[in-house]
Amino acid sequence: MRWNRRELAQLKQLWSEGQSAAQIAGHLECSRNAVCGRPTRLGLTRGRKPPTAQNPRLDRCPSGGPTLMAARRDRVRKKLLQ
Question: Which spans in the chain are helix H?
């Protein structure tokens, strides 16, 4: 694909806004691989990572208290009886 100045300007703007390569490819009507390769060759980097990538939230597992153990035991018993 040949990149003209207008497309390069749009690519740089959309890339700096944090849009995905697939979104940019749809906007510029080219392949995602073309969009992935051009910023690499131009030396462009993302401004920052998305919030979910910086601090992934891990949910704690419930403790194995007596109520939870009884609920598990009941589920296993139901499956065995079927």
Answer: 5-17, 21-28, 32-42, 51-54, 66-81
pLDDT tens digits for 10-19?
999 998 888 8
- Show the tokens assigned to 67: 């109520």
**Tokens for 76?**
């296993």
pLDDT digits (tens, 9 = 90+) for 34-47: 998 998 898 888 76
Q: Are 24 and 11 contacting, i.e. CB atoms less than 8 angstroms apart?
A: yes
Dist. CA 42–CA 47, nearest whole Å: 15
**The whole model's pTM is what?**
0.55
Q: Report the alpha-carbon distance of residue 34 to residue 1 in Å, rounded.
A: 7
